[in-house]
Amino acid sequence: MRHGSGWWLLAPALLLLLAAFVLPVGLMVPMSVRPYVPLVGITDGFTVRYYTRLLTDSYYLEIIGRTLALGFTVTLSTLLIGYPVAFFLARTRSRWRNWLTILIVFPLMLNLVVRTFGWIALLAQNGLVNQALHALGLVDSPVKLLFNFAGLLIAMTHIFLPFMVLVLIGAIQNIPRDVEDAARVLGASWGSTFCRVTLPLSAPGILSGSILVFVLSISALVTPRLLGGPTYQVMSTLIFDEFLQRLNWPAGSAQALLLTIMVLTLVYLSGRLARRTGAGA
Amino acid sequence: MTAVRLRAWLLRVWVALVFGFLMLPVVVIALASFSRTSYLTVPPRGLTLRWFTAVLGDAEYLQAIGFSLLLALVATVGALGTGVAASFALIRRRVPGGALVSALLNAPLVFPAVVVGVALLQFYAMVHLNGTFVGLALAHMVITVPYVVRAVTASLQGIDPELEHAARVLGASGPVAFFTVTLPLIRPGVAAGALFAFIVSFDNVPVSIFLLGSGQMTLPVKIFTAIEYGVDPSIAAISTLLIVLTGVGLAVAERWIGFHRFV
User: Which residue segments constitute the domains of chain A, with CATH numbers given?
Assistant: First the structure.
């Protein structure tokens, strides 16, 4: 009886996810191998041309490479910027600690379009960043920060930084202070205690935070679209155009499935890695 | 100054700089929304509230706000109903394959939202749900359920199952024991899950943009398309309103349920 009631309680959620998530994503597989004929539409037949094109054509390879490069640099910059902040928030005894954590959560809860809009105002030709650079005498003419890699890197670092910090706070809080104190008592300097005790013990958090940020940044649509425009494409904006502008659903499905495979592979591998090192990610 | 104090001081400076970086776009938008100029400029020139009155008098914006609120409300109620039941089953009942079910329930958290959007665009075209409110609401439930499950399971793990057993022993039926004992105890988790679900639905672009029918428009998709046409201070004004509402909502949630524990 106890088993039965468990399934009844799970049924609505499971049904929802199977019908409106698993099945629709699964149906993209047959769609991705149907030929699309311009002016005619999606026809019956079988083709793998959208996959071969995606993996051989230099136009698509450049977009895939750019997406991965962006994901990698965003992950690295959020890690470097966020680690000290997470360390501070995990260790501080300030009575403002909970409110400081909420201040990290605030941008996360704020509408993504609004945050991206803020970066448009900041990074434009006559935006605040260029005004500041000019006032400081660092540049003579405005620096181009929109529709290129630099602008996307800055804005996406801002957007994904809270995720990294929140994951790292959890990981650093889990490190017993005794272990660090022991290292110090045994004569280790602050630097070597940090590098040989604190940092390795927070590795599970670094791994799961990095995977999360990487996966979210290679899937991001809104920020790359608004800051990159229709010309500076990443994988998700390519999928967006394929479905809504070119109406080539088979090609779009192949691209969407490639992005999905990349994401799922990473999540799976990080799970394996976390289990092997004996730490929960 | 000793090395210890220097390190502590440097860390504080770094933390302050990063908080400044996090708040920078927020401050910039808020300032730009008061500018008298018809183009976006920071710092603002002059001071006016006309962009706020313009936005709040615009029928398209008001309709989009209403539609987004309704959609978020329906999605949140649906996600709560399915999510709380599922969390309870996962924590309190022995379900075979529980780990797999749990992974499935959390999958939309890391799954590319744009893929969910295009997959549903295709699927709804096949089953004739395209452009319907039902289709949109189901899609929003899919992306919000994981947040409810995460907050509610965390809450359930923190309370003693013996309390519910005691109620059962004293003669309460399963549902009565759940609604009078367990549910009040996990209320903060349910509230946090509901807040997450509401915000995630209200903010969504990458799923909604593929599924909106003619005559349907959500607020974030409206702002998204407005920005693609060109930026002006009225977008900053509606953004400022969202900033204030989000800030107030978050502060209330922190005072009320200690929201930071659920992130």
Answer: 47-107+162-277 (1.10.3720.10)
The token duo for A256 is 């969407």
Alpha-carbon gap, residue A223 to A115, rounded angstroms: 9
pLDDT at A4: 56
Q: Could you tell me if B58 lies within 8 Å of chain A, comparing CB atoms? A: no
- Judged by DSSP in three states, B244 sits in helix
pLDDT band at A275 (very low <50, low <70, confident <90, very high): confident
Q: Which residues of A touch B23 (CB under 8 A)?
A: 103, 107
From residue A273, alpha-carbon distances to A105, A163, A280, B35 in Å are 28, 20, 10, 52
Both tokens of residue A59? 């136009």
Chain A interface disruption, residue of B84, B95, B115, B195, most A CBs within 10 A: B115
Overall pTM surpassing 0.90 (yes/no): yes
Chosen for mutation from B111, B114, B142 (greatest number of chain A CBs closer than 10 Å) is B114
Calpha distance B118→B112 (Å, rounded): 10
The burial class, CB within 10 Å (0-12 / 13-18 / 19+), for B161 is: exposed
Percent of chain A beyond pLDDT 90? 66
Q: What value does the mean pLDDT take over residues A219-232?
A: 93
Q: Residue A246, SS3?
A: coil
Burial class (CB within 10 angstroms; exposed 0-12, middle 13-18, buried 19+) of B109: middle
Query: In this complex, do A121 and B15 lie within 8 Å of one another by their Cβ atoms?
Result: no
Chain A's closest residue to B94, CA to CA, is A3
The predicted pLDDT at position A3 comes to: 47
> Confidence band (pLDDT; 50, 70, 90) for A1?
very low
Closest CB from B85, B138, B209 relative to A9: B85
**Residue of chain B whose alpha carbon sits nearest to that of A119:** B25
Using a CB-CB cut-off of 8 Å, the residues of chain A touching B111 are 21, 219, 260, 263
